[in-house]
Amino acid sequence: MADGHLIRPLTPETFPAWLALAQKHNGVWGGCYCSYFHGDTESTVKREHDGPTFKQRLVAEGVAHAALVFDGDDAIAWCQYGSPAELPNIYHRKQYDAGEARPAPWRITCFFVDRDHRRSGVAREALDGALELIARAGGGEVVSFPNELAPGKRTSSSFLHNGTRAMFEKAGFSFERHIGKSKTVMRITVAPAAG
Question: pLDDT (tens digit, 9 = 90+) per residue, 21-79?
């Protein structure tokens, strides 16, 4: 817990706080509702539901995971993670798959931070929270695809939904390779939580 913030997993109980944060920002990135990286399940087809309903159904099915950063009762950020089966729709997928020698059981796909809390380290809190939740779920290798920022070039936070290479390096991830114009492949092994 930093600055009085608490990390909680995305569950049916925390979904209303997650939804309030998404709705405060018009559904996030043009109404994505953090569903772009998700695929269909046996009982939930994306095109048959609006964004909030699709996400809520995935949460209820136990196939949508995120570490939520709470400030009191309000969610102020999240880091989405899950298995490749839960989150198949990554950017530059063909290029990633072509160079993937050892697929990881976990991937981190996106972040979102409330506009009132940006540039304050909250995304890093969400990343650390996701790694802690992965440890509690048995740990294992985690891969992610953060952006590599051009030196001296200012980038809008709206383009940083995958986080930055620098943030992931500070969290202990190792750089493997570039994919696309500015994405990277980074990896860490998370030990299972004790007990």
Answer: 999 998 887 788 889 999 999 999 999 999 999 999 999 999 999 999 999 999 999 99
| Of 50, 55, 45, 80, nearest in space to 65 by CA | 80
Q: Tell me the C-alpha to C-alpha distance, in Å, between residue 9 and each of 80, 94, 182, 183.
A: 10, 30, 29, 26
Range of the domain at 115: 6-190
Q: Is 83 exposed, middle or buried (0-12, 13-18, 19+ CB in 10 A)?
A: middle
Give the total number of structural domains in the chain: 1
178 assigned to some structural domain: yes
Backbone φ, ψ for residue 116 (5° rounding): -80, -5
Helix, strand, coil percentages in the chain from 3-state DSSP, rounded to 5:
30, 25, 45
pTM: 0.92
Supply the CATH number for residue 135's domain. 3.40.630.30
Sorted by sequence, the CB contacts under 8 Å of residue 195 that are 6+ apart come out as: none
In a domain, 195, yes or no: no
SS3 181: coil
Is residue 157 assigned to a domain?
A: yes
1: in domain: no
Kindly report the number of other CB atoms within 10 A of residue 9's CB atom: 17
